[in-house]
Backbone:
């Protein structure tokens, strides 16, 4: 009998989590959807954060379309790259996408994201569900939820612009 030596386990780890964030906006579903679909509107609330420098952003909002953004807070800070593929889009109702986030060329997160829009009296209920794989302990569900809260605050300000 020949014994095969056991290989050391890799030091790479993956943690899985799902988060759900809901908001009600005082705007009809068509306006909320347009804030995701229109490149200029999306730039204002999603891309141009107050403390982020934008290095690169593409926007191809269609099923099979891809988006890529490269961001950095300043000189000497980590460079983040977000890559997205739109998997399903139903106008004024739903957006489903996959995304990968890297920091300094190291993949730290991969996800399936679903954004659902439902008309309510006086507005729209947005339900965002993110199912994520956190790679090598480089990101966390709490950090992702905090990031989405900040982005949805920015979306609310964009919608209030009229």
Residues:
């Amino acid at each position: 009998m020949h014994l095969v030596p056991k290989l050391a386990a890799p030091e790479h780890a993956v943690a899985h989590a799902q988060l759900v964030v809901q908001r009600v906006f005082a705007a009809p579903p068509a306006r909320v959807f347009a804030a995701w679909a229109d490149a200029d509107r999306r730039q204002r609330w999603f891309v141009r954060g107050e403390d982020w420098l934008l290095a690169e952003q593409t926007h191809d909002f269609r099923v099979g379309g891809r988006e890529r953004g490269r961001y950095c807070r300043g000189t000497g800070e980590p460079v983040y790259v977000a890559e997205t593929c739109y998997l399903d889009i139903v106008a004024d109702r739903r957006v489903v996408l996959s995304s990968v986030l890297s920091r300094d060329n190291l993949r730290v997160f991969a996800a399936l994201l679903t954004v659902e829009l439902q008309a309510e009296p006086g507005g729209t209920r947005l339900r965002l569900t993110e199912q994520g794989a956190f790679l090598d302990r480089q990101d966390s569900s709490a950090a992702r939820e905090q990031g989405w809260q900040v982005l949805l605050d920015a979306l609310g300000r964009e919608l209030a612009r009229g």
Q: What stands out?
A: The radius of gyration is 18 Å. The chain has three helices and seven strands. The helical segments are 29-37, 39-47, 141-160. Residues 1-10 have pLDDT under 50 and may be disordered.
